[in-house]
Specification:
Largest sheet: none
Number of strands: 0
Radius of gyration: 13 Å
Structural class: mainly alpha
Oligomer: single chain
Distance between the termini: 23 Å
Strand content: under 5%
Helix content: 40-55%
Length: about 90
């Protein structure tokens, strides 16, 4: 799948804050960048999770992962990492 939202530079700032790296204990996600693209698709479109395109994976799995990241304040850390670049 072609990337449309995140630049490589933005991803470099985001990646260290993601859960599911090979060094993390417990389960890990297959593709954190694709998951972030899915979250951004939901935000941009305002669609419910069940309308997530199949190219992003199973919507229910993506929503559970979103919930886990939200509860772990991952998105807060990502926002803080990116807030110096308003674009």
């Amino acid at each position: 799948m072609e990337r449309f939202v995140l630049t490589d530079a933005q991803w470099a700032l985001i990646e260290p804050h993601c859960l599911g790296k090979s060094t993390d204990p417990g389960r890990s996600g297959r593709d954190n960048r694709l998951f972030m693209e899915a979250v951004l698709w939901i935000v941009r479109t305002g669609s419910p999770w069940r309308d997530l395109p199949a190219a992003f994976g199973n919507w229910s799995t993506a929503f559970r992962r979103f919930s886990d990241w939200r509860n772990a304040d991952v998105f807060k850390r990502i926002f803080e990492a990116l807030s110096s670049d308003p674009d």
